[in-house]
Specification:
Layout: H1 3-12, H2 17-29, E1 46-48, E2 51-53, E3 57-59, H3 70-74, E4 80-86, E5 99-102, E6 107-110, H4 119-126, E7 135-139, H5 148-159, E8 165-169, H6 184-198, E9 207-211, H7 217-230, E10 234-237, E11 257-260, H8 264-278, E12 284-287, H9 293-302, E13 306-309, H10 311-316, H11 320-334
Parallel strand pairs: 3-4, 3-13, 4-7, 7-8, 8-9, 9-10, 10-12, 12-13
Antiparallel strand pairs: 1-2, 5-6, 6-11
Helix pairs in contact: 5-6, 6-7, 7-8, 8-9, 9-11
């Protein structure tokens, strides 16, 4: 991390977290954040759900909720980018304050509640997306919707022609009863509706499913079965957690989803369990607490074919992306892997 980046992070941390989030996006859009470029190598190139990735390190949904910074993010080092979540209608989300730093734990608690500009505005931005990047959209449902399952299909229909993949997000803890859609019957019906909407696109695209970390073995099995039965192309494990074990500081008891370093072990264990359940039948994307090359490597060895990060950048800056990709390349070389695909799941038993 450069001195300028360190000073920038310190300055942002003097501000309210949501204000700082908005300023970081503005800095990206105005070119104040350096363009690091996408680091790749024969070891890092991989294919997931038919998508050819220059490296397996992606941006998780939640940072660029409204697809405002697609061009600078495409040059920030990520192998793929996920924006959103988008809902059919614009909505303000939950009352502020709704974003909290737990600096001692390198963690974040948020209860945004799917605040976004709505699918029409987001679709217009996606229509002008850079073509040299893999870009996906996290699909969400309006808080006051009478048919949340249909909301996901609506957003896909409106935005799908501009995407490389789309993610069904039933795992946010900040929209009441949304996680109820992770039950097998409800999830199967929802996914079938999304697949039907996908069939109406110019070119059908891969559909991913993002799950919560707060699941039992039985719930994981049900989700995996529903995903495979309906043709989901990959599962993202995991979203934020409701757990507050071992945290420090004044914001520990704030409501919302916890992300960042404390989520790493819990999300990686869920990932490994899901890898065992699916037995290679569906690719997995590991998310939760990644803040170093070793963290990314651990997720891959636990069963992930690719990873995503976001919260760690709040503490380590955008240069973290290149640090992780270059470090991951060295770790793969150290252990004799010619390609990342050869390392997937090799140490899964260590996390079960």
């Amino acid at each position: 991390m450069s001195l300028i980046e360190q000073l920038g992070i310190k300055a942002l941390h003097r501000l309210d977290p949501e204000t700082a989030h908005g300023l970081s996006l503005k800095a990206l859009k105005t070119g104040l954040v350096p363009s690091f470029g996408v680091f790749t190598s024969p070891r890092l190139t991989t294919t997931i759900a038919g998508l050819s990735l220059p490296n397996p390190v992606g941006l998780a949904a939640g940072y660029d909720k409204n697809a405002e910074a697609l061009k600078p993010l495409s040059n920030a080092g990520f192998g793929f980018i996920e924006v959103g979540a988008a809902t059919p209608r614009a909505q303000p989300g939950n009352p502020k304050p709704r974003l909290f730093r737990l600096s001692e734990d390198h963690a974040i608690i948020n209860r945004f509640g799917f605040n976004n500009d709505g699918m029409d505005i987001i679709a217009n931005r996606l229509a002008n997306r850079p073509q040299n990047a893999i870009i996906g959209l996290n699909l969400g449902a309006n808080k006051d919707s009478e048919n949340r399952a249909d909301d996901f299909a609506q957003v896909l229909t409106r935005c799908g022609d501009y995407l490389d993949f789309a993610t069904v997000n039933v795992s946010s803890p900040n929209t009441e009863k949304l996680r109820d859609l992770q039950g097998k019957q409800a999830l199967t019906a929802l996914l079938n509706g999304v697949m039907q909407a996908r069939s109406g696109l110019k070119e059908p695209l891969p559909i991913f499913l993002k799950i919560a970390p707060d699941l039992t073995q039985t719930e994981l099995t049900d989700i995996a079965e529903a995903a495979m039965e309906t043709g989901v192309a990959a599962i993202i494990a995991t979203n934020t957690t409701l757990s507050r074990d071992g945290l420090h500081g004044p914001h520990v008891h704030e409501a919302g989803g916890l992300s960042g370093a404390p989520l790493f072990e819990k999300s990686t264990r869920i990932l490994a369990q899901l890898s065992q359940i699916t037995d290679g039948k569906i690719p997995l994307i590991g998310v939760g607490g990644i803040g170093s090359p070793q963290h990314a490597y651990d997720k891959i060895c636990a069963g992930a074919s690719a990873v995503q990060l976001y919260s760690a950048m709040v503490y380590q800056g955008m240069s973290l992306v290149t640090k992780i990709t270059k470090g991951l390349d060295k770790l793969l070389a150290r252990d004799g892997f010619s390609n990342i695909a050869d390392a997937v799941g090799t140490k899964r038993k260590d996390w079960l």
